[in-house]
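Extended Data, panel c. Modelled sequence:
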Amino acid sequence: MKNFANHAVSRRAFLGGSAAAAALGLAACGGNSGSDTKTDAGTSTGGKEGGGALTVGSAYSPSSYDPANCSSAFCLSANMNVMEGLYNIDFTDYSVISGLAAGDPVEVDANTYEVTLRDGAKFSDGTDVTADDVVSSFERATAEGGLYVSFLTMFDGIEKKDDKTVTVKVSIPNFSLLKERLAIIKVMPSSLSADDAKAKPVGSGPWMYTEVSDTYASLAPNPNYNGEFPAKDNELRIESLTDTTARVTAQQEGTTLVTESVPPESIDQLKGAGCDVDQVNGFGTRFIMFNVKKAPWNDVKVRQAIMYALNTEQMIANAFSGMATIPTCYLPESFTNYHKAANTYTYDADKAKSMLSEAGVTPGDLVLRTTDNAQVVAMGTQAQEDLKALGFNVTLTSDQSPATYAVIDQADDSWDILIAPGDPSCFGGDTDLLLNWWFGDNVWMKTRCAWNTSDEWKKLNGLMSDALATSGSDQQDCWNQCFDILSEQVVLYPVLQVVTPTGSWRSTASPKGESVSSDFKGIGTTGVQLTGINTVTA
């Protein structure tokens, strides 16, 4: 038997971003991984640090908190404080940090591993965390129709060996991303009902829910938490501030100590008030998706024509104040596995008209939907004008994400094109996961985009499987082919890749005399993660 290498390291950072299916992740954890030192949850770290309330402004509204099927930006973020997997992800660099596991997986054979739970692990309700809870949580996460299923297809099963040990079976020998994928499975009590999981889940993490509503979530330290990364304040309060003016005002006045999705036009305003604003490139995208169930969007040439018709440079200037880039690959250039795709798209209205003519398409009525993200609404307005210039009669409809996807999930012909934000890097940073969120065998390809019956989708998924089973240059070659297919087919593809601005009272105290500890910085993944961060009173 052999152990996996331990990648757990000390991290203290702040992450900010936005996505339709992403997180404002506030993982309140910190300290030296592997240290024998334990701190009681909610206690001060010394001096004037700790004992206060961490207040955060979210750009999204809450919906379902269900840890086995959560895609709400607000709820997924809050769950990062409450729920643990066997392992957790540190979103500052996508490394693995401690979760419920007492150590690394122990290899029994190339397809079988054992994981032991840490001693004394309890849920916030005081009940012991057992192997049965791990097994039932895996079953919930892999239930048919679940959002995470395509991330977890390599698992043949998770079984109970004894009360504190589970046996994990995988279909890919020597699977190198085992801990990263186990981190997706958040462990909850077997007794927790589906309704309670959606409304207020119980976890074993450093925080627990005390109150949730349509506008905020309030969390308190979990008194039963005995892991490495205890909560360091008395309260964590996440406010839903979807209105950009309200969110900026709350940050400027010090009502919130940290805020996500700072509008580009408000960056100088917050900096002038003394607030830090970090701007970092990440995976965050503003994507386009076509209803390929209906003509003319089932024609690849027509989809490509629309890509050329979009005045993306104007979008960047007007909606993002220059804080975005035009994609040259599904991955941003800063990512390790980046490969310039075979097809890139810049504004060329004449080419777009020519391609429509070649496809035999006469522009007609078109329903363009967007979510209510302010930047996306602005993109939609620009796209409406761009498509009108091609001759389309464009109806633009913007709504909150749940309402938008409720319409799209009806699988009817009432929409043509969607523009929305997205960032699956809130689940992890490996290339297979980033591909699988949209292009795996899931709701996106079965219902929303409905591309899963095409030969191109089957080839794409074959290459994704091949990549997962190999490594090095062979793996990169498979992914390069994936990127080329996506850039050619553009059934769902980034229109822009954005810079993530995050505000924090870090270097100076807020007008209310509070700040967050100085080891607090912005990084460019979706959502926010607080790692060992606490309040400081001036």
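The mean pLDDT is 87. This feature is highlighted in the accompanying rendering.
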